[in-house]
Specification:
By secondary structure, the protein is an alpha/beta fold. It has helices at about 10-20, 30-35, 55-70, 85-95, 115-130, 145-160, 180-200, 235-240, 255, and strands at about 45-50, 75, 130-135, 165, 200-205, 215, 220-225, 245-250, 260-270, 280-285, 290-295.
Amino acid sequence: MKPMINIDRYRGELEVIRNEAQTAGLLTGFQSLDEYYQFKQGYPLIIYGLPYSGKTYFIFQMLINLSRTYGKKHFIYSPETGSGAEVLETLLCIYTGKDVRLMKDKEQVNLFAMTHAEFEDAYNFIREHFYIADTPDFPKQITLEAYYQHVHDIANESEFSLDTCLIDPWAEISIDHQQLHVSVSEALGTMREHDKANKMTTIVLNHTNEIKPIFDREKQTTYDPIPNPTQMYGGQMWFRRGYSIMLVYRPNALVFGCAENETWIFVQKSKPRGYGTKGRASLMWNNSKSQFYDDTNTQEDVF
């Protein structure tokens, strides 16, 4: 029997893989998460969760961490966060752990406000590493292809070398809802091709479908169950064709016996091989600082 000689075309690339040490992924800035996931540029990342679980704050902080450690630059499209100025305010607060506003009201000074020096330092850092798209930059229900075109137009016009581009939430992208699974499959294929060709990472934040809460009779409380990827809007196609998938979940402290300000990050799928594994990281939320932190630290705060 003749060998399948068509694989010989991959021999040269395979020799490179065989002889080169595997490069480590980039650390996320969260020690507990780094054990299960390391950032690999050029592959899409899908993050989902229930409403108000902290998805946007989590990814904003991770992107800031990547900029601080590796100088990475990001395109942000997050209309659910607010206007461009409100997105900028959020990033500044996460960067400093302090408020932008100098006054709590007309008469009371905000003791948690950043100083002028802190404000200017944070502003210059975000200005250097982030491009924020405001809602008027995009028509409602923009297609994924048009979104990418805008991202690259901005990069070319401003000479802003981008490493990631964020879509928050996925519902802003126009798809055929009558053939939802087909649309999601095609979109994931487009993301994969785009990221590989441009050495970028598309990050998508997605909601779950409506999930019925559970009543715990023993604890006499209602809580949201832990979702799985097939419960994302768009269904199981996300799990089938997605590369890396994370769930951001805020557990009920009474039911799960955890801290009131605890958030769980589930790595439910990780590709390419060698840059992650399934597992659960535990982060704590400091409301006064608008920041997540590893539970090994000494900060204490509640939602």
